[in-house]
Amino acid sequence: MLEEVGLEYETHPINIMEDDQFAPDFLKISPNNKIPAIVDRDTGQSVMETGAILMYLADKTGKFMVKDGPEYWETIEWLMWQMGGFGPMLGQAHHFLRFNPEVSEYASNRYGTETRRLYGVLDKRLEGRDYIVGDYSIADIAAWPWASRFEWQNIDLNEFPNVKRWYVDIASRPAVIAGCKVPKDVGPIPMPA
Ligand SMILES: N[C@@H](CCC(=O)N[C@@H](CS)C(=O)NCC(=O)O)C(=O)O
Questions:
Q1: Residue 16 alpha carbon to ligand 1 centre in Å
Q2: Same domain, 88 and 143
Q3: Average pLDDT of the chain to the nearest whole number
Q4: What integer is the mean pLDDT of 94-99?
Q5: Nearest CA to ligand 1 atom 11
Q6: What distance in angstroms lies between residue 127's CA and the mean position of ligand 1's atoms?
Q7: Are residues 73 and 153 in the same domain?
Q8: Is residue 186 part of a domain?
Q9: What is the spatial distance between Cα 130 and Cα 75, in angstroms, rounded to a whole number?
Q10: 129 lies in a domain?
């Protein structure tokens, strides 16, 4: 989002494997000890939670979210869908399908099934639409990074052709390519076969 809106920014990597997220200075801006969080140096406002950060930056810059009307609420709807479903469920799939596949058959099945269901919902939503709501928006910006881990989730994007088209299209955006290298370059963006 910061690359897309073109604001200058400085990153402060938080290594969650080394418990940086519990440092008192970080907890002041992110009391739930989760990344990401931002501080707006223009105003002093700090914001935690991805959805709130995206809304804050859209509001500050007037980009990637309409101001009112039905499309405003649809954007909120799909942002909340990501925050409550696509993000957390796919996050659990990473734990139980990718990192600890043997630990619990129940958990692997549950999150694997839920992940496929959510991809199905997104595929249906993208039928006949270029983006999740209207033009490219914070709804897409919130969801796309989770889809970029389709391999970790045992998802073949060919089974979800509308998601595949949407995913490949967004993957070519210069801001997305640049943003995927922040805070460090972890290699090329995964592309479906
Ligand atoms: N609802 C939060 C979730 C963020 C989240 O789960 N962050 C994880 C990394 S992906 C984290 O900071 N974990 C550290 C911890 O739980 O201590 C958001 O969307 O911003």
A1: 9
A2: yes
A3: 97
A4: 97
A5: 34
A6: 30
A7: yes
A8: no
A9: 14
A10: yes
